[in-house]
Amino acid sequence: MAGTDVVTLGDFIEQESQDFEGSLAFTIKADYIKREKLWKSKDLAAEFLGNFWRHILDVESIKATLQFVCAELMENAVYHSVKSEYMIVIQLCFKTDELMVYVKNSAGTEHMEEFKKFAGTVLAEKDLQKLFIQRMKEVKQTGSKKSQVGLITLIKDRGAKLSWKLEQHPDLTVVTTLARISLQGKVA
Q: Model's pTM, two decimal places?
């Protein structure tokens, strides 16, 4: 069996390298969240996670951002999972100054070069509003359903810092997305 190639995009921080104040994980097989029920499932899970951390941190303002981040990342994880028996893991980790949202799923290796290019563009772009509009125009012109504007919105409107770890195996790529949400000035 060939070795695993690991690529990181952005400022990815391994969970094991951190000393967290707390952590909460949600793990489910990809095939248990049916795509036709995805919207309701992801919204319910995101609402639970947002409410949980709002109460733990006693910060009302974090709820909407956290719900949006969790819903978007969960939707992407379910949508792009290629192995129905593969576990999707959503883990929220709390440090004094930030929440770190890790989402792990399986994805098709054949799409990774395109994703790396997109992620590089998003991470390097200074004018995210311009990129957002450009992506929306491309979607309208091509009729594609894959706009990727959700990830842009996480950074542009929600202030999340995104990064990824891609573990490329022969039959799939394990993608771990990290969204870091600052709590500076928010924790009472």
A: 0.86
